[in-house]
Amino acid sequence: MTTIKDIAERCSVSVSTVSRVLNDHPDVSSTVRERVLKVIDEVHYVPNSSARDLVKSQSDDIGLVVRGMGNFFFAEMIPTIETAIAKAGYTLLTHQINSEDDELRAGAELVRSKKLKGLILLGGCFDYGKEQIAVLDVPFVCCSFGNSFGKLKETQYSSVTIDDQLEARRAVEYLIAHGHRKIAILLDSTCDSSISELRYLGYCQALKVAGIPLDEELVQETGNFSMEASYDGMKQLLNRRDDFTAVFVIADTMAMAAMRALYEGGKRVPDDCSVIAIDGISMSAYFVPTLTTLVQPKREMGEESVRILIDMIEKRSKNRHVILPTEVRSGESVRRMK
Amino acid sequence: MTTIKDIAERCSVSVSTVSRVLNDHPDVSSTVRERVLKVIDEVHYVPNSSARDLVKSQSDDIGLVVRGMGNFFFAEMIPTIETAIAKAGYTLLTHQINSEDDELRAGAELVRSKKLKGLILLGGCFDYGKEQIAVLDVPFVCCSFGNSFGKLKETQYSSVTIDDQLEARRAVEYLIAHGHRKIAILLDSTCDSSISELRYLGYCQALKVAGIPLDEELVQETGNFSMEASYDGMKQLLNRRDDFTAVFVIADTMAMAAMRALYEGGKRVPDDCSVIAIDGISMSAYFVPTLTTLVQPKREMGEESVRILIDMIEKRSKNRHVILPTEVRSGESVRRMK
DNA sequence: TTGAAAGCGCTAACAT
DNA sequence: ATGTTAGCGCTTTCAA
Fold first, then answer.
1. Are residues B284 and B269 in the same domain?
2. Distance CA B119, CA B122 (A)
3. What is the pLDDT along chain B (338 residues), one digit of tens a residue?
């Protein structure tokens, strides 16, 4: 393996000189610089970033730990975050993790290795404890999730979220306002101590306020957030009942799969059954019919997360929490009952 | 920052002992092990992976460099690759890059830092040169792209792809077989030296063989692969012409957006206009109407890529190239002309 | 303008 | 079973 030392030898200079040209330091004579550059190119030298990171005392990098590839919602938020970070004079370092991985641990390792100044977590658990966040010794902000099921104090972490329960309630109230009373819900789980549970609570609340009794047979769990599970879930629901006139699906992707199941089950959307969801990913606007959904303010969420983090890094302020409202995108998937 | 040395001091043991418990070495007395573990937990110690990587001489890791978040096609291929790699006794290290980044450079850095045994590139340029691949000093395989516009010899790289041009031709011939003659095409660009150009060539070929003259007004470029651009592109095409009875769209996601534009333009799919695409992402099966598409064999592509790579790593064979066929998924988006 | 040398945090011989 | 020590490849003082 070619190292900086090899380059140095081939050029008859010292490693420090090579390092200098590698890092664009000014005090290198142009003759030497060119010679070094030439050799670097010839031998296809690529620096070892581990060695580099190890010796660096600080970086201006901020880490973004994203849970899961193929999360449309997250994917659409990243460019905004990247831009905001760049504008603040920092560099973004994105790191994907699998759904099984521990985002705090992964984040902590990143911080240590890359000497990060701060961390943004895109997706994570709603129930961290004091012990778990203690591995992070830099400011961090939870983007799109809070600590609803944990016992952290507000001063111990930052977050930028929507009010999942309230927005779910709004979604269901939107259906109620359109004359619906038999409203089903399609969700991951009623008790996942996470987003699904929160949105379920909002559903229950909306029904309660409207004086509609909770009909447990209209509550359909899917077990996960996949389109396949949603499709199957909706089919099951249809097998069990066909008297509901509307469904609240807790995520856009799930809603798209559910609409297909409704279609195949002979229920036209919105004629026979209205559908509303939460998220507002761009793809759902291309569906036929377009999905009515409460759009999460992705741009604001990203920018606000960055703002909070930078403020903390630059010691301008402490942990804070921001809750942003969604915006209704009225699509073709909800109709008014006459 | 807490290091292994701090832990050692607090435990009154040497750093090597701490290192041993960190790496689960057997020869540590259980009393010491527990004491160390306790302190590690107390101070929330997280190892520095740069230091670790630097000192390690080899790993059993294989890198996967993926171009772009939110590429549905790639996202659906990753689990397969991961499984296959694990089954072969290696570990997968996934690394995302932006569309502007140089995947070879990024891959080379990963290889150096993490001491990787090999690399799989998921998405990349079709025109690498000898010089560019020289930075990689481990076996690598290009998954889902070849070197159609470059000048590499077959012995210089490995690839697993579909035959883009042929499959595009098949897609168009499918439309022709269904009685269509006025067939439009929606693509990124006719000359991007990449996938779009290849599929365009297939389109032209199919027309030629069928004796249908190429009508340039039916060729619509979008400039990129986004849904937005596809939607706009289809609108433009509709403004210009409305006599085509079918469209070949070069990717599933683009097709979904295009179908929406057709719908808004008053053209029903498939009644007024048929649509066929290539890719076969899962979401397109939930659309109404379901998309007819040539499904890329994601599973086989992933597994074959891994097989080739492992074979090379274990010196069982040299570079090879595999071209896999697609499978037609007949959806509701194509109708037979009477 | 250049070189020598001291580490960054960790692992892995090699001793004991 | 445990400690000592020599690096891994690089950047960065400090001297020259």
1. yes
2. 10
3. 899 999 999 999 999 999 999 999 999 999 999 999 999 999 999 999 999 999 998 899 999 999 987 899 999 999 999 999 999 999 999 999 988 899 999 999 999 999 999 999 999 999 999 999 999 999 999 999 999 999 999 999 999 999 999 999 999 999 999 999 999 999 999 999 999 999 999 999 999 999 999 999 999 999 999 999 999 999 999 999 999 999 999 999 999 999 999 999 999 999 999 999 999 999 999 999 999 999 999 999 999 999 999 999 999 999 999 999 999 999 999 999 98
pTM for this one?
0.95
Contact state of A135 with B46 under an 8 Å Cβ cutoff: yes
Whether B221 is in a domain gets the answer yes
Instruction: Count CB atoms within 10 A of the CB of residue B51.
Output: 17
H or E stretch covering B188: none
Domain CATH number, residue B136: 3.40.50.2300
Residue B137 in contact with partner chain A when CB distance is under 8 A: yes
Q: How many CA atoms lie within 13 A of A168 on its CB side?
A: 25
The number of residues making up chain B comes to: 338
Q: Which residue has the tokens 């944990």?
A: A150
Do B7 and B39 form a contact (C-beta atoms < 8 A)? yes
**Domain around B265:** 164-295
Q: Do A113 and B50 touch (CB under 8 A)?
A: yes
A192: its two tokens: 């996942």
- Whether A228 has its CB under 8 Å from any CB of chain B: the answer is yes
Question: CA A8 → CA A42, B93, B179, distances in Å?
Answer: 13, 31, 68
Structural contact between residues B256 and B227, judged by C-beta atoms closer than 8 angstroms: yes
CA A186, CA B283: separation in Å to the nearest integer?
Answer: 18
Residues of A in contact with B48 (CB under 8 A): 54, 112-113
Chain A neighbors of B253, CB-CB under 8 A: 283
Q: Is B333 helix (H, G, I), strand (E, B) or coil?
A: coil
- Quick check: helix, strand or coil at residue A120? strand
